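Anyone able to model this chain together with NDP?
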Amino acid sequence: MAAEIIDGKAIAKSVREELAVEVEQLKSDAGVTPGLAVVLVGEDPASKVYVRNKHRACERVGINTRDIRMSAEASHEEVMEQVHNLNEDPDIHGILVQLPTPEQVDDEEIINAIDPAKDVDGFHPISMGKLLTGQPEMVPCTPRGVMRMLESTGVELSGKEAVIVGRSNIVGKPQALLLMYEHCTPTICHSRTRDMTEHISRADILVAAAGMPQMITGDMIKPGAVVIDVGINRLDDGSLVGDVDFDSAKEVAGAITPVPGGVGPMTIAMLLDNTVRAAKNSACCC
Ligand code: NDP
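re: yes, here you go
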């Protein structure tokens, strides 16, 4: 039987609808309008598209956005200064520096300079540490979005085998933690994993985040598994595909996300959610 398709666009829309109500309430109750600043250094076309989509999504729910464009030649110090200014700005509750930045800018130092209370990407070591120690505040958007999608399937997570392919700070590692907190047994695979196929074949929940086009095929997947495809890969013909071969996988999986229209919209929805949380926290502290 063909898999249920987990519609990221539809789930993201319902998240935005809930957030729009919360934003209105925050405005009327506390006089606070959530504000997100997005810093884009350079002219990378893909980054420009991501940034535009983030601004549009913010507008839809009533979040103010500030678009900060810096030239590809901007120095590390100039980007740091921008972050420091935004840290001090009371109208800005979330700061996002679109990565990667040009070579001369040290991404790690930039992330570490963001006020953890405004770290809506959840990449700051304090945000990561809180997640690791079970006191999550700002959780990275993509893994959070994946959890919302899993929730939408109604599948019981407790006790399930979860396999995550990829161990990055922004997806794989936090994903494993979030799944563990829902009482799954997570296994993280990476480029040195010896028999990845064997691991994948045991997965009740599979999260693919390697950035390898269509690497996981239907014959590798456990029948009935929930398959979440985080990967976004552009093929030579211009089309976008995930890390999972959707056509073969959907014949075996119980539920599966498409690419595009799966995790991508949820990542943005969770960015909005983190921004609204940050604004609420700031309103509580005033
Ligand atoms: P990274 O490049 O930081 O990490 C990729 C991970 O995959 C690494 O841990 C790497 O292992 C592992 N990997 C690479 N090749 C293989 C392989 N053949 N077998 C097993 N593991 C492998 O990528 P990100 O985590 O940033 O992103 C992963 C994918 O998700 C990309 O396609 C990216 O575009 C997409 N993405 C999508 C988002 C969305 O909103 N939909 C958001 C963020 C990312 P090792 O550590 O050993 O090198």
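Residues 142, 165-168, 170-172, 189-193, 196, 209-212, 215, 230-233, 263-264, 267 surround NDP (CB under 6 Å).
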